[in-house]
Amino acid sequence: MTQVRVRFAPSPTGTLHIGGVRTALYSYLYARQKGGKFILRVEDTDQERSTEESSAVIVESMRWLGLDWDEGPEVGGPCGPYFQSERLDIYREYAETLIARGAAYRCYATKEEIDAAREEHFERTGRKEGFRFESPYRDGKTPDDPNARHVIRFKAPTEGMTAWDDLIKGRIEIQHSTLQDFVLVRPDGMPLYNLACVVDDHLMGITLVARGDDHMINTVPQILLYQALGAEVPAFAHVPMVLAPNGQKLSKRHAAVGVLEYRDLGYLPDAVLNYLVRLGWSYGDQEIFTREELIEKFSWDRVGAQASRYDAAKFSYVQAEHLRMLGAEELARLSVPFFARRGVEVKADDPRLIAAIPYLKPRATTLDDLAEAALYFVVEEPEMDEKASKKFLTPAAAEELRFLIDTIKDVTPFDDGALSAAMEAALETAGKAMKSVAQPARVALTGRTRSPGLFEVMEVLGRETTIARLERAIARAEASES
RNA sequence: GACCCCAUCGUCUAGUGGUUAGGACGUCGGCCUCUCACGCCGAAAACAGGGGUUCAAGUCCCCUUGGGGUCGCCA
């Protein structure tokens, strides 16, 4: 049995978007499950559109997601280089081979001639579409000057058909009559997608080509190329598109398209992967998967053939679930940059932060939420919400807070259980209700109206800080005009 | 327009000829409760339409409709 070798082959013309991540992910999972190799190859043969910045973003995105590749940029490998722009000589050699075998030919038709033919087609049929250029050089017309500017075209068959069994879409059959003599090499010698892709997939020993289903139309030309080259044809898996919620093409209007934006929003890589894998793939009723489970359970035959729509709400839910799966130490470490962004310096091992996280976790979706909610635990003096202060820190509340201090100041241990019990007893004796104490106390301790349970907050803050904040709030309350 | 793909709740999906068509997100109602969450309980919500095949069709076939993709000297 030959080793599984799959590749993700993005073109560096923008960010790595979530549709691309999904195809990369499926390929990655398949490779890992089969103990095969996952290869990253950058398809940068379009010099006008490709940029180095984009390559860097793609590499960074893949790294962040943990979609680690065995061969490709930064890591190298036996089939390198992994940037197509560095493999130009190879494509030229293959193009010459194809010409020598009569499978391809030099076409000297100028752009103007082709445009004229297109125009003529339009006038004759009344349509712009369905135009098929028939080159006079296909059948051996000799050019006035063999060195003149020309492209290399594939001599596509006009009769018969080619079929393949797609791992996702099933059997697909295409009539050759729909084919064009597609261009393999530009006048400047740069190869086009179909040539470069096939040559590399062949040379890199790719056993399965997974890509977006917008490439389905390229598959027959590519199969024909493999055959002309005498190369083995790989398997194909055409992954459906990810659409916007309204069913249109996904764009910046609908979602954070670049995957790194999710990092900055405080999403977890495994959550991104989990959400995207379920968009089009299922495993019974299971919704939440660890990376290890995905590697174990993924299979192409459970990938749906239909396009799916991006749903931000479901994504949030999956993210929240993954956040809750992590331990306090890890979450503390991951949230450090989100404190920094707020101008707050926190150490990943800050004991108060770590102690607070279990109480904050059920209330947070992202790491950003977590940092925001943890602020009053890690700073000396919490920022006071003036509206909350005005509403709850009234002269009348000062009395309740005094009662609270008296009740809790000597409780030992100073934890949620003991504090709740002491308070319950004191409330009973005094004939008071928790309700009248809770919100003033919450505002006093956190500066806000929403927080974890009061005694959980106290436990994390500790006796000294708790009492200090309550005292300060009393002073403030007494000074206020009701 | 041609070619290709697709079609179960609003969304993601389970379903591989016989099910009260299941789950999840979201929505709505309730419980819990010191706030906000979490959690728990419950509800509304789908087989696009029409023909076949079959004792039996969401499941198989055909047509229609709808959606998407491609039609580059982009990938």
What does this structure look like?
- This protein has 482 residues and is mainly alpha-helical.
- It has 4 domains: 5-84 and 242-309, Rossmann fold; 87-239, HUPs (Rossmann fold), CATH 3.40.50; 326-378, Orthogonal Bundle (Helicase, Ruva Protein, domain 3), CATH 1.10.8; 386-479, Arc Repressor Mutant, subunit A.
- 48% of the residues lie in helices and 9% in strands.
- The chain has 19 helices and 11 strands.
- It starts with a strand and ends with a helix.
- The protein binds one RNA strand of 75 nucleotides through α4, β6, α5, α6 and β11.
Set down the secondary structure blueprint.
Blueprint: E1 5-8, H1 18-33, E2 37-40, H2 52-65, H3 88-100, E3 104-107, H4 111-125, E4 151-154, E5 161-166, E6 170-175, E7 183-185, H5 193-203, E8 208-212, H6 216-229, E9 235-239, E10 242-243, H7 260-265, H8 269-278, H9 291-297, E11 308-309, H10 312-325, H11 328-340, H12 351-360, H13 367-378, H14 386-392, H15 395-408, H16 416-430, H17 434-446, H18 454-461, H19 463-479
Parallel strand pairs: 1-2, 8-9, 10-11
Antiparallel strand pairs: 3-4, 4-7, 5-6
Helix pairs in contact: 1-9, 5-6, 8-10, 11-12, 11-13, 12-13, 12-18, 15-17, 15-19, 16-18, 17-19
The chain binds one RNA strand of 75 nucleotides through helix 4, strand 6, helix 5, helix 6 and strand 11.
